[in-house]
Amino acid sequence: MPIRTPVRLALGIALCCAVAPAIAKTNAPDPYVAKGEPADCIPIRSIQSTNVRDDQTIDFIMNGRKIYRNTLPNSCPSLGFEKRFLYKTSLSQLCSVDIITVLWNSGPGLQPGASCGLGKFQPMEKAAK
């Protein structure tokens, strides 16, 4: 029986260590504030990269370092965990009426997950310190 107690203690410490970084990351302050009126669409050609913040928030980093935040009307399951998605559009713009699909990393390739609607694109700027 004395062996079980140290094993439980070691497992407890390991779990605490594994959870701590995730807690610290989710509590990071938002470096941006809203600036101006939201837009219905953004040009696809100008999207340089994206930053998925959580299950409901995506920052679109545009050419020229402009940032548009899209807050989805509803939470999109696994978006914040997977941090990757795809979209399909026949237009040259990504709009608030478009749908994104979460991409799951499952085994040898990416698999489609939940599909979720986008919201409006809010221009953002770095917060003053």
List keywords for this structure.
129 residues; alpha+beta; 3-stranded antiparallel beta sheet; 2 helices; globular
Provide the β-strand percentage band: 35-45%
Uncertain spans? 5-25
Q: Please, how many helices? A: 2
Distance between the amino and carboxyl termini: 56 Å
Could you say which overall geometry the principal axes of the C-alpha atoms support? Answer: globular
Question: What is the topology, as strand order, of the major beta sheet?
Answer: 1-10-5-4-3
Nutshell version of this structure?
This protein is α+β, with helices and mostly antiparallel strands. It is built from two helices and ten strands.
General description of the model:
The protein is an alpha+beta fold and 129 residues long. The protein has two helices and ten strands. Strand 3 (47-54) and strand 4 (57-62) form a beta hairpin. The chain is globular, with a radius of gyration of 19 Å.
What topology emerges from the helices and strands here?
Layout: H1 4-26, E1 32-34, E2 41-43, E3 47-54, E4 57-62, E5 67-71, H2 79-82, E6 85-87, E7 93-95, E8 99-106, E9 109-117, E10 121-126
Antiparallel strand pairs: 1-10, 2-7, 3-4, 4-5, 5-10, 6-8, 8-9
